[in-house]
């Protein structure tokens, strides 16, 4: 059995992200990834069973990195509003500073190659957001709707903004972060009577 080298593993992941973002999922082959990573085509199979296995592991690695970054120093004992703002700002910060990873996740999340188990595991990494939304609902701060709808409302404006920025259709402005946070809060908070 061949020994796995952590640097080769990172090179494979980096090459896969680049190729998927440049050429798309279907045009990215294991041999292209190996060539871009500077390893032999047979070596890549020491690390992964096949392309599907490699992409799912890469997806989970990025989701883990994202969740570690978003929830670093997270304190769920502070107010719902403060927790919401902290989490949303950290999420925006991650996707704005990790373009290649964000674009890969966006593309792979809509692929039939994404296993249900990987999707579930990736979702579990963001359980603190679900708990935050549930807490907001129990305190009657957030709309009394399905938590998944609140989650979508919370992250979709961020994702769309970042996609527009990366696509060159808008220019990122720091003050937009405050606007996004406020608009997102307004979208999910319970209406005042």
From TrEMBL:
Residue ranges of the HTH tetR-type domain? Answer: 6-66
Entries under SUPFAM superfamilies matching the protein: Homeodomain-like (SSF46689), Tetracyclin repressor-like, C-terminal domain (SSF48498)
InterPro entries, per the entry: Homeodomain-like_sf, HTH-type_Tx_Regulator, HTH_TetR, Tet_transcr_reg_TetR-rel_C_sf, TetR-like_HI_0893_C
Instruction: Kindly give the Pfam families that the UniProt entry links to this protein.
Output: TetR_HI_0893_C, TetR_N
Q: Which UniProt keywords apply?
A: DNA-binding, Repressor
Q: Does the keyword Zinc-finger apply?
A: no
**Which residues form the DNA-binding region?**
29-48
Q: Could you tell me which Gene3D superfamilies the record lists for this protein?
A: Tetracycline Repressor, domain 2
Annotated protein name in UniProt: TetR/AcrR family transcriptional regulator
Q: Name the source organism.
A: Alkalicoccobacillus plakortidis
What lineage is on file?
Bacteria, Bacillati, Bacillota, Bacilli, Bacillales
């Amino acid at each position: 059995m061949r020994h796995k080298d952590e640097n080769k593993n990172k090179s494979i992941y980096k090459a896969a992200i680049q190729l998927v973002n440049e050429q798309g999922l279907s045009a990215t082959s294991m041999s292209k990834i190996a060539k871009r990573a500077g390893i032999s085509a047979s070596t890549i199979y020491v690390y992964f069973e096949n392309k599907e296995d490699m992409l799912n592991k890469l997806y989970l690695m990025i989701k883990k990195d994202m969740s570690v970054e978003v929830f670093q120093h997270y304190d769920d004992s502070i107010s719902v509003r403060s927790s919401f703002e902290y989490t949303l700002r950290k999420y925006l910060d991650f996707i704005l500073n990790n373009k290649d990873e964000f674009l890969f996740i966006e593309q792979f999340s809509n692929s039939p190659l994404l296993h249900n188990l990987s999707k579930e595991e990736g979702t579990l990494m963001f359980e603190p957001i679900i708990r935050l939304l549930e807490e907001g609902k129990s305190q009657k701060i957030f709309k009394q709707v399905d938590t998944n709808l609140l989650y979508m409302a919370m992250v979709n404006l961020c994702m769309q903004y970042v996609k527009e920025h990366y696509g060159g259709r808008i220019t990122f402005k720091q003050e937009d972060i405050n606007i996004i946070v406020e608009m997102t809060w307004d979208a999910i908070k319970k209406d005042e009577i």
